[in-house]
Amino acid sequence: MTSYAPADEQEAAAIVAQAAGRSEPLRLVGGGTKATFGRPPHDEATLSATRLSGITLYEPAEMVVAARAGTPLAEVEALLAGRGQMLPFEPMDHRPLLGSTGEPTFGAVAAANNSGPRRINAGAARDSLIGVRFVNGRGQPIKSGGRVMKNVTGLDLVKLMAGSWGTLGLLTEVTFKVLPVQEQVATLVLPGLADAAAVEALAAALGSPFELTGAAHLPAGIGGPEPRTLMRVEGFAKSVSYRIGELRRLLRRYGEAHVVEAEESGALWRAVRDATPLAEPRDAAIWRISTAPTRGPAVAAAIGGERAARWFYDWGGGLIWLATDEADDAGAGVIRAAVKAAGSGHATLVRAPETLRAAVPVFDPLPEPLMRITAGIKAAHDPAGIFNPGRMYAGV
C-alpha cells in the first residue's frame, strides 16, 4: 500500500489533489492510536500527518495554543504544564482500551472530538477548538476560525471538523483555548451505592453550587471489589476544602464519604477517562453509550437483563462504558433498543473485530434526512470521496 507523509501543508495539498484526480481513496492517520476505531477502511493509500509537527503559537496570557496536526499531544501538554495550564476537556488516551501503540497527536484530538470526564464542566473538545487549517478533497488549503472565540454566521467549519474522523479533510493545524491548572484537586468517594442511588447522588451534587469537574460511578467489580461513586472538586485549596465539606453534608443520606487526593485521585480519573476498567478481557466488545444522565441506570439495566455485560458511568450517568460478548451483533440490537426506549442518546461500537465492525453500524444509524445532509456535506468537502471512505457510515 502506498504511504504519503507530507512535510508541509502545500505538499499535502498537492498529494490530495493528485489522489482526487485518480480517485485514490486515502486513509488519514496521525499516531495510529485509534486506527481500529470505526468501520473497516476502504482505501488504497495512507496519508499521514506525522511530519506536520511543531507548536506554531502559544500565548499563555491569552490562553491559546496552536500546533500542527501531527504534533504529539504529550508535547503540547508538557508545554502547557510548564506554564501551569492545561487542555480543558481532558482528552482520552485510547491505547489501553484498543491495545494500540503509537503516539496520540494534537490533530486527532480535534478530529475525534476527544473529550474526557471534565466535559461536564468545561465542555467537549469542540467547545475549546477555535481554529483549524485543513486540506479539503479538492486539494485546497482551508483556514477557519482564529485565536479568539467568536460568533459564526453560516457553516461553522471549526465545529464541523471536530468529530468528523478525517472524513471531510486532512487537518494540518488546530488551535485550542486552554485553562489554568487548579491549585488543588480532591475526589469525594461514596462507597457501596447501587447504580440508581449513585446517579441520584451525582445529580444532587451536580445540581448544587459546589461545582464538580468529574462525576462517575464504578459498580462492584469495576476497578475494585465494591461500588464507588466519584466526585471531583478542583480550585483554590480553601475553596476545595469548603466545597468538599458542604458536599459531605449534602450527601450524608447516601453514606459516609471519604476523600482521596494527589496521585490516588489522578489515577482514578485517568482510569475513568481511558475506560481501563473494561480493557480486559480483550475479546469483549466495548460500547460507548450516551443518554440522559438520569436514564443511565435504566439503560444499563435493560441491556444487562438481555445479555451478560459489565459497565460503569461517567458524566453523572450520561455516559455509559459497556463491555459485552462479541457473539451475534455484540448486543447492537439490544443496546440501541434500550437507548431508544430512554428517549434520547446514541451508542458507538468502540472496540470489536474488523468483521464485526463491517457487519454492525459502528456509529448510530442516522435518520434518512440527517443522512442526506451528512452525505451532502461530505460531497461538498470531498467530492471524489477519497478521505476515509465509509469509516463512519457505509457509502459516505
Automatic annotation (TrEMBL):
InterPro entries with a match to the protein in the record: FAD-bd_PCMH, FAD-bd_PCMH-like_sf, FAD-bd_PCMH_sub2, FAD-linked_Oxase-like_C, Oxid_FAD_bind_N
Leader peptide range in chain numbering: none
Xref: SUPFAM superfamilies: FAD-binding/transporter-associated domain-like, FAD-linked oxidases, C-terminal domain
GO MF annotations, alphabetized: glycolate dehydrogenase activity
Boundaries of every FAD-binding PCMH-type domain copy: 1-181
Broad enzyme group: oxidoreductase
Entry EC number(s): 1.1.99.14
Record carries keyword Iron: no
UniProt keyword GTP-binding, yes or no: no
Pfam families in UniProt: FAD_binding_4 (PF01565)
Protein name stated in the entry: Glycolate oxidase subunit GlcE
The species this protein was found in: Methylorubrum rhodesianum
Gene: glcE
